[in-house]
């Protein structure tokens, strides 16, 4: 009886969602994007569009050197453009706009009384309506991921079934935002207020995440610099130890050691400050949902570590990086910093990324459900 009632409410809410034009517009845009990405390819000259070649030396060199094959190219393409840009931003914004009125329409006078007259608990009513909104994103992501699997399999020669994780993960990311829309829409009965609140909160989440990532990058870079400076000091100390006591350049060698000591002291002081700032930004970030980092988990599942390393090796081979000895005294490769940064990000894992985000959603949903059960409509 309970399952039948819940299924009937889900189907009714789905019909309401299905009738909205934005659902079909979003679906059409997803199909167009998949078709557009499927027309691209790579060869020895660079990119291809249908049977035309677009000369891009870097892409051609990576392909010729075996550092970038067709399957890796399509995985990078679909994740960076299809998932990281379209699904994680475009489709989510359309979903927020399309579903913002679900809760206000549900609690308006005349509609809510008819629903509450049925022998269904308020909590189940609220959660069923909430779950229906997630279908908007879930169906979009499922269709997109199946289409992407077919394109990568047929054109790239690799069947990446881990792309099926896109649908549940994107639904989860959307739920982090929609819980805010649900409580604001229920309290204000205004879809505009719900949309604006979600966009403001989302912007704040992005700002906190960006700030933490910038500070983390600076901290990791200083750690790399400190490590390289320590190595240079050891080399300088070894030269002093090897030099004779009456060597003419002994004072110069000792001055070099003192110079490295001064640089290390300055770097360590800056690093201490960065660690304190990062600790504060990380604490604030831990309280908020991680929409961006949740999508990065999907990227790690789709694109393997060896594929990323091969791609970076190709980038390093074509880059002649020169350090800045005047300010740091050592050469710091950007790729070196990126690798150390990746180690820090990967150490956070699924439990911290999704666990803290789900905890945020649970608190907001608990408050919304409590208000819905106690409110006199």
- Which residues sit in consecutive blocks of at least 5 with pLDDT less than 50? 320-326
User: Would you tell me the overall average pLDDT?
Assistant: 84
SSE ordering: HHEEEHHHHHHHHHHH
Write down the overall geometry.
Answer: flat
Largest sheet features: 3 strands, antiparallel
Offer a quick outline of the entry.
It contains 13 helices and three strands.
Descriptive account of the structure:
With 377 residues, this protein is an all-alpha fold. The chain has a domain at 2-198. Helix content is 79%, strand content 3%. It has a 3-stranded antiparallel beta sheet with strand order 1-2-3. The model is unreliable at 320-326 (pLDDT under 50).
Show the helix and strand layout.
Blueprint: H1 2-18, H2 21-38, E1 40-42, E2 46-49, E3 52-55, H3 57-64, H4 70-99, H5 102-106, H6 111-116, H7 122-156, H8 166-188, H9 191-242, H10 250-286, H11 291-302, H12 305-317, H13 334-374
Antiparallel strand pairs: 1-2, 2-3
State the main characteristics.
13 helices, mainly alpha, about 375 residues, flat, 3-stranded antiparallel sheet
């Amino acid at each position: 009886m309970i399952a039948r009632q819940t299924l009937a409410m889900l189907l009714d809410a789905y019909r309401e969602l299905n009738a909205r034009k934005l659902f079909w517009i979003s679906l059409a845009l997803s199909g167009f994007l998949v078709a557009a990405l499927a027309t691209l390819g790579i060869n020895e000259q660079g990119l291809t569009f249908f049977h035309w070649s677009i000369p891009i030396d870097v892409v051609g060199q990576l392909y010729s050197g075996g550092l970038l094959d067709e399957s890796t190219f399509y995985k990078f393409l679909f994740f960076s453009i299809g998932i990281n840009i379209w699904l994680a931003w475009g489709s989510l914004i359309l979903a927020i706009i399309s579903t913002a009125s679900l809760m206000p329409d549900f609690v308006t006078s005349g509609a809510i009384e008819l629903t509450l007259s049925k022998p269904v608990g308020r909590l189940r009513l609220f959660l069923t309506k909430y779950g229906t909104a997630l279908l908007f994103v879930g169906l979009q992501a499922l269709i997109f991921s199946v289409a992407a699997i077919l394109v990568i399999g047929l054109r790239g020669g690799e069947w990446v079934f881990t792309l099926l994780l896109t649908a549940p993960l994107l639904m989860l990311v959307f739920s982090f935002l929609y819980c805010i829309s649900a409580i604001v829409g229920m309290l204000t009965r205004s879809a505009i207020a719900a949309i604006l609140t979600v966009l403001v909160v989302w912007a704040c989440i992005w700002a906190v995440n960006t700030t933490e990532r910038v500070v983390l990058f600076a901290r990791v870079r200083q750690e790399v610099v400190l490590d390289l400076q320590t190595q240079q000091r050891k080399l300088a100390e070894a030269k002093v130890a090897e030099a004779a006591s009456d060597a003419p350049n002994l004072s110069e060698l000792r001055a070099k050691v003192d110079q490295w000591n001064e640089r290390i002291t300055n770097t360590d002081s800056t690093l201490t400050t960065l660690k304190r700032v990062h600790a504060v930004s990380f604490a604030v970030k831990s309280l908020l949902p991680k929409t961006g980092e949740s999508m990065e988990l999907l990227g790690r599942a789709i694109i393997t570590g060896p594929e990323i390393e091969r791609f970076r090796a190709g980038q390093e081979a074509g880059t002649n990086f020169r350090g800045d000895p005047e300010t740091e005294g050592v050469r710091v490769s950007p790729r070196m910093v990126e690798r150390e940064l990746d180690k820090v990000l990967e150490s956070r894992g699924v439990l911290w990324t999704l666990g803290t985000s789900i905890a945020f959603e649970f608190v907001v949903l608990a408050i919304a459900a409590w208000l819905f059960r106690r409110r006199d409509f």
